[in-house]
Amino acid sequence: MPKKRFGNMDPIGTSSARTHFDRWRQERLHKIRTKDYSHCVPNVKPDLKFLQSNRTETSVTWIGHSTFLIQAAGLNIVTDPVWARRMAFQKRLAPPGIELSDMPPADVVLISHSHYDHLHVSSLRRLRGPKKCSSLPGFAASFLSGAFAIPRNFIGGRTRPFTASKSHSFPPSIGPAAILGI
Question: For 73-78, what is the mean pLDDT?
Fold first, then answer.
């Protein structure tokens, strides 16, 4: 029996999808080349000495996009580690809030999903520390083709202990910023 090709259930045509994509890409590239983004992302120099030695105070440091350093319950938690200078065909709009070389050792790494702007394998490899990885269900089986230890899966609404603290899972549509209320 021949394979059945996927088709949309609604009668929307896709014959000009390539043309629309090409037009969008050209407009996007034009915007990137001509718009001044220097004022869009404020940057404050972090207190690196405090971040390196902090094991008692809760703090959240935004590094960029969905990458955060969360210090809580004596743990250094990193979300969606990306320190790449380029993401696909675009340059970063601003440098990371903390350079990778200045990061304190990561105890836990939370990975929401494996898109290029939420997981950069080289950044994950270069993070110092034990890096216990956690992800959502379905991601662990194919986690970086065995490049790292299989992470612990989260199932929505449940908690998992990490030493003295617990990690909570949320639906994939809720990112770290929404969870932290930022």
Answer: 92
Compute the CA torsion angle 90, 96, 101, 106 (nearest 10 deg): -110
Helix (H, G, I), strand (E, B) or coil at 173: coil
- Using a 10 angstrom Cβ sphere, with 0-12 exposed, 13-18 middle and 19 or more buried, the burial of residue 73 is middle
- Rounded-to-integer distance, Cα 121 and Cα 123, Å: 5
Residue type, 65: H
Distance CA 158, CA 154 (A): 7
Residue type, 28: R
Residue with more model confidence, 157 or 100:
100
Lookup result for tokens 């996009």:
65
- pTM beyond 0.70, yes or no: no
How many angstroms separate the CA atoms of 158 and 136, rounded? Answer: 11
| Beta carbons within 8 Å of 126's beta carbon, 6+ residues apart | 83, 100
What is the C-alpha to C-alpha distance for residues 71 and 33, in angstroms, rounded to an integer?
A: 37
The span from the CA of 180 to the CA of 182, in Å, is 6
